[in-house]
Design a protein that fits this description.
The protein has 576 residues and is an alpha/beta fold. The protein folds into 3 domains: 6-16 and 196-452, Rossmann fold (3-Layer(aba) Sandwich); 55-187, Rossmann fold (3-Layer(aba) Sandwich); 457-565, ANL, C-terminal domain (GMP Synthetase, Chain A, domain 3, 2-Layer Sandwich), CATH 3.30.300. It has a 15-stranded mixed sheet that branches. A 5-stranded parallel sheet has the order 5-4-6-7-8, with helices on both faces. Strands 9-10-20 form a 3-stranded antiparallel sheet. Mean pLDDT is 91; it is low at 571-576. Residues 468-555 form the AMP-binding enzyme C-terminal domain.
């Protein structure tokens, strides 16, 4: 490659990152110089529905009790994978840390997955235990049966008013584990945290179907300390009232913990800051407003669709949100229009955007700590420890201000895609992560993401792989060929649109009677809805074409249909 600019962060100095600790040892046992002091009266976690707080001492006790039970009753040990198929729950982090105490690996899964989607993740990770939410039990048991996992290897979080059937609950395991002999704790030697896998979090990467991202303990710890350094945690850099993160502040955890943004930033980082996390099982817009008021929430971690609702939904005027003093928006770009509306709605709050990926576990950039407001369109400033470069289409490295694919090297980078050498070689290259996103970095060190090179769509902040939907579409009898692209959507950012070539039989039926076309369209949409989680549904609709453009080697020329899709605008349908 020709010489170009390699850009480092300028927002602070990264402290030493311990390389011999697991995540729970860092969170619960380790004394870090930059960690703010948490007064005993500041709850660690708060249950949204009941307001019941869990203190730091109880958090440690529940984690150890669960570790004892997992070890004694389920023989969870080094490298065993436990899949958490659940909504947010106050015991979610304790279950996660308990498995880590034993050397095990956690794979978080979306509790709204279909049976087939969950079975895919079970097989990909070779999970030996499922921890689930009560309302996901039917799917969990169906997937476990299909996978061949005995049903006594399913454990359920305890939720008031929800049946757990005959399954063992986390509360039961805490009680049993409290009376068991302390399980031997998994210990790491110096340097081993860099390679010891903690999480198998799923991402679609730049192309293809979902893949398990192998994230080591060191990466999560590093990202916490990177954010702490950027944010000047535990220093009096401005007056107390203007400091971005303060012990005793309260954050709402409405982002799902199965998503890397919710897990690392909303949960682990804010706990490190000495804040209380109010745990919300599932997002519902007006319920979120009520929770902000009821719990005196100061900090919100959001995705763009939630910001859109805050700006546009008429019910917002019924709630006093003046206590909110910080809002971070990530997972997908936010339009300038909505950004400006957010500034007007929360005139006293610090508001800005960040950028990150599962493959970089998590944050790469966030708006400068010196600025109350992030610049519209900017993903912020590279955080300490991050090095970036711009890869131009001709293979050369770009200079400051030039546009190309953004690649990063950071201590928080994941190791690889689990059991997927081909995809690993495409994305993880000599310590760098290729993002598949086109962008530029300005002379003042701000990152701008200008377009998406990769095929993956971002729907409400969730990744959707076109190849996954295309594979499902080709299973439909009326489909001969298919190509899925994203279509702009005011609420979701983009939604999937399918271009379909009818099978010969379906085409003949339509030729004889044009009235048969709409039932075929509806049947194709239902086919995906029956198999896939809601954000993967064909909300952009189905367009019929005579052929799908391809290269001579048969590769889809997706960019042609993507350009065509940009001309198709569906009205946004915001769901509460």
């Amino acid at each position: 490659m020709a010489p170009g600019d390699i850009l480092s962060a300028s927002s602070g100095v990264l402290p030493p990152i311990p390389d011999n600790l697991t995540i729970p040892q860092f969170q619960l046992d380790h004394t870090e110089p930059t960690r703010p002091h948490r007064d005993a009266g500041i709850p660690y976690l708060v249950d949204d529905a009941t307001g019941k707080g869990i203190g730091f001492a109880e958090a440690r006790e529940r984690t150890q009790a669960l570790a004892n039970a997992f070890s004694s009753l389920y023989k969870i040990g080094n490298d065993d994978v436990v899949l958490i198929f659940s909504r947010n729950h106050v015991d979610y982090p304790f279950a996660l840390w308990a498995v880590h105490r034993l050397g095990g690996v956690i794979s978080p899964a979306n509790p709204d997955y279909s049976r087939g989607e969950l079975e895919f993740q079970l097989r990909a990770t070779k999970a030996s235990l499922i921890i689930t939410y009560p309302d996901a039990l039917d799917t969990a048991t169906a997937a476990a049966k299909a996978y061949g996992l005995p049903l006594d290897r399913i454990v359920v979080f305890s939720v008031a008013g929800m049946s757990t059937g005959n399954f063992v609950t986390i509360d039961t395991l805490v009680k049993r584990g409290s009376g068991l002999k302390k399980a031997p704790e998994f210990k790491l030697k110096p340097g081993e945290a860099k390679t010891k896998v903690a999480l198998l979090s799923f991402s679609s990467g730049t192309t293809g179907t979902p893949k398990a991202v192998a994230i080591p303990h060191f990466a999560v710890i590093a990202n916490i300390l990177q954010l702490a350094a950027h944010s000047k945690i535990n220093t009096n850099y401005v007056d107390w009232k203007d400091q971005r993160y303060r012990p005793g502040d309260r954050a709402l955890a409405v982002l799902p913990f199965y998503h890397i943004y919710g897990l690392v930033v909303n949960l682990h980082f804010l706990l490190y800051c000495g804040m209380s996390i109010v745990v919300v099982p599932k997002f519902h817009f007006e319920a979120m407003l009520k929770s902000i008021v009821r719990h005196r929430i100061t900090h919100l971690m959001l995705v763009p669709p939630q910001a859109v609702l805050l700006c546009k939904h008429p019910v917002v005027k019924n709630y006093d949100l003046s206590g909110v003093r910080y809002i971070m928006i990530g997972a997908a770009p936010l339009s300038d229009e909505v950004n400006q509306q957010m500034f007007a709605l929360f005139p006293d709050a610090q508001i800005g955007q960040g950028y990150g990926m599962t493959e970089t576990s998590t944050v790469i950039s966030i708006w400068p700590i010196e600025s109350k407001r992030g610049i519209s369109g900017s993903a912020g400033q590279l955080i300490p420890g991050v090095v970036a470069r711009i890869l131009k289409p001709d293979g050369t490295l770009g200079k400051v201000g030039e546009v190309g694919e953004v690649t990063f090297k950071a201590p928080s980078n994941a190791l690889r895609y689990y059991n997927n050498e081909k995809a690993t070689k495409e994305t993880f290259i000599d310590g760098w992560v290729r993002t598949g996103d086109e962008g530029t970095i300005t002379a003042d060190g701000l990152l701008y993401i200008t377009d998406r090179i990769k095929e993956i769509m971002k729907v409400r902040g969730f990744q959707v792989a076109p190849a996954e939907l295309e594979g499902a579409l080709l299973d439909h009898a009326d489909v001969s060929d298919a190509c899925v692209v994203g279509i702009p959507d005011d609420y979701s950012g983009e939604v999937p649109l399918a271009f379909i070539v009818l099978s010969a039989d379906a085409a003949a039926r339509v030729a004889s009677d044009l009235n048969r076309l709409e039932p075929i369209r509806a049947g194709i949409i239902k086919h995906i809805a029956d198999q896939k989680i809601a954000y993967k549904h064909l909300a952009g609709g189905v367009e019929f074409v005579e052929s799908i453009p391809k290269t001579p080697s048969g590769k889809l020329l997706r960019r042609f249909l993507r350009d065509k899709a940009k001309e198709i605008k569906r009205p946004a349908k915001a769901k509460l």
